[in-house]
Amino acid sequence: MKLIIADKNYSSWSMRPWVLMRHAAIPFDEVLVELDQPDTAARIRDYSPSGKVPCLVTDDGQAVWESLAILETLAERYPDRPLWPSDAAARAHARSIASEMHGGFAALRSSMPMNIRARSAGTGATPAALADVARIDALWSECLARYDGPFLFGATFGIADAMYAPVVMRFNTYAPALSEAARAYAERVTALPAVHAWIDAAHGETHRIAKYEELIRT
Questions:
Q1: CB–CB of 114/170 below 8 Å?
Q2: The domain at 88-199 falls in which architecture?
Q3: What residues have CB less than 8 Å from 13, skipping those under 6 apart?
Q4: d(CA 75, CA 67)
């Protein structure tokens, strides 16, 4: 399979399936398309009908785009991997919070865009963004207490955790206040080998996008 992604430093949607596949030892070839280049749109459309990343091209040539659709497809294709919780009630809960991430938290995304290399505590701390942070903190804390951690639905890093991994990157960059449970969870996700590999690759990239770097400086 091929996974088409964009810059690891900036592309939060790309991070989600990449990290899960790496963690679950699902083999794939990476195709990285740099954002904000003259040929970016054309290169992505070679694979993705939506013109956006990520896009998974399966070994039989099927294109699957949108992060959550890719993750669901992987769960179907690899039922031996514990990507969703095995318990039906927990699985429904995990799908709910994954979908909430997919469709929500617009203020956080807008005010605190992912920039893994940056450290800019306090930037983007608008009331709306901080309300999103509070909701995510409460959501994480509830899951960690209910399912006894260390990840959102117990012992295994799964789809729900992958959906929130870019949020962890944002929290590392902008350092909003978090509860002890949420802070410790963010540290565990950051230390996960698959996540650490993504972070290392982001630091190794030389491509810079001025509009995102300028936001950090203001």
A1: yes
A2: Up-down Bundle (1.20)
A3: 52, 53, 54, 67, 166
A4: 12
Superfamily of domain 2-81: Glutaredoxin (3.40.30.10)
pLDDT in tens, 93-145: 999 999 999 999 999 999 999 999 999 999 999 999 999 999 999 999 999 99
Give me 145's structure tokens.
């207490």
